[in-house]
Amino acid sequence: MSSLFPALTARSDRPAVRFGDRALTYDGLASAAGALAARIDGAGRVAVWATPTLETAVAVVAALLAGVPAVPLNPRTGERELAHILDDSAPALVLAAPGDALPAGLAGPERLDVDVTAVHRVPLPPEPGPEEPALIVYTSGTTGPPKGTVLPRRAVAASLDALEEAWAWTADDVLVHALPLFHVHGLILGVLGPLRRGGEVRHLGRFTTEGVARELGAGGTMLFGVPTMYHRIAEALADDAGLVAALAGARLLVSGSAALPVHDHERIGAATGRRVIERYGMTETLMNTSIRVDGEPRPGSVGLPLPGVELRLVEEDGSVIEAYDGETVGEIQVRGPNLFTGYLNRPEATAAAFDGDWFRTGDMAVRDPDGYVRIVGRKATDLIKSGGYKIGAGEIENALLDHPGVREAAVTGEPDPDLGERIVAWVVAADPAEPPAGQELVDHVSGQLAPHKRPRVVRFLESLPRNDMGKVMKKALHG
């Protein structure tokens, strides 16, 4: 396998990473990461206190250079979850920025401060094998303790190279984002992606529409975000000509980690003339599908399988769905070089996650006649079985969000003696003082979708519970 980061070997003065006013060229990054790689060589595993800083980027690159698996830690992780991750992954060291206050739970592993100014002129270490673990990223733990997903170097390279092809991603691209660095989206796509291409990443530290406008307006070509960020952008466009111009000048706007509501797609497109591309991935699979940069824009779709990725839909009994009709719902299964090698210390969970060599994603989708994939929700929380129909929550949520009186919406199912499950809409009103009537929203959905997809209950909330990536935590919604 060739080097994950060919541009590091060249040690050029091209910009590599920037966080606010702190930056490193490829030469500086090779020096700092090379020096740290020499210090952690043979460490087994290292934890990285993954703050949105230059130190986190250097730490992860150093671990990859040294062939030492890195375990990114969410700085907001609770005490119990942190203890589980440390016990499960047993890192020898924790890498952190100088001055970072670490929680008491991190007192076990030896601390090593990351020096981003270190100078290291010896050749970088040889590239480890493609199946060697690169990262161990912990899942969100929604169905039990978080599981450590072991991602091999092969998967990182395969996913980033597939995106290079789908998005025409080059060394001339400058990526702007403010995503957390303890998830696949922000760390692997958002930091390692530009570095593999030999381009530049500018991390905002904290998301603001002003930061997006500033960096895209100063040469940024790509923006990565989650729906919450794009919603804030859509809200700000009417009063911010600079933001409109910055987005209009960008080459690629990408949204991921959850579905971007159609209404926000339309508002951004109307104001800027630019479409937002959606893609679909998971911690265990990295990237599976995407709208191509030269493909048809289709809000609500995550596009086609990426090069090297095979995708199929299956029924609950495991039979493969052959229909490409845009209606038949099935669970997505994938296989390809983008897959993880297993859950750390969890052979039973690893075995249960596969159907032969196909990974069971737990995501439900339909396929349009041309192969485009539309995700309708998670099998565990977004598939509603009502009146003999299998209904995806996502399209109902989009219909609700199309109503001018709705700011946010989530849809769940709850037991019903007649229907099996009834559809429940959870709504945050655009004007909390004058929310739309529940029946008005039911009629609105009925006018856009089939009658059996209308909500039977509408409940209003001040806000929806969300995690760090902006995903609605539906298990926290109950009557």
UniProtKB/TrEMBL annotation:
Every AMP-binding enzyme C-terminal domain range: 395-471
InterPro entries: AMP-bd_C, AMP-bd_C_sf, AMP-binding_CS, AMP-dep_synth/lig_dom, ANL_N_sf
Biological process annotations from GO: fatty acid metabolic process
Residue ranges constituting the AMP-dependent synthetase/ligase domain according to the UniProt record: 10-344
GO molecular function terms listed in the Swiss-Prot or TrEMBL record: medium-chain fatty acid-CoA ligase activity
Family matches, as Pfam families: AMP-binding, AMP-binding_C
Family membership: Belongs to the ATP-dependent AMP-binding enzyme family.
PANTHER family cross-referenced by the UniProt entry: ACYL-COA SYNTHETASE, ACYL-COA SYNTHETASE FAMILY MEMBER 3
Protein name: Acyl-CoA synthetase
Organism of provenance: Streptomyces purpureus
Lineage of the species this protein comes from: Bacteria, Bacillati, Actinomycetota, Actinomycetes, Kitasatosporales
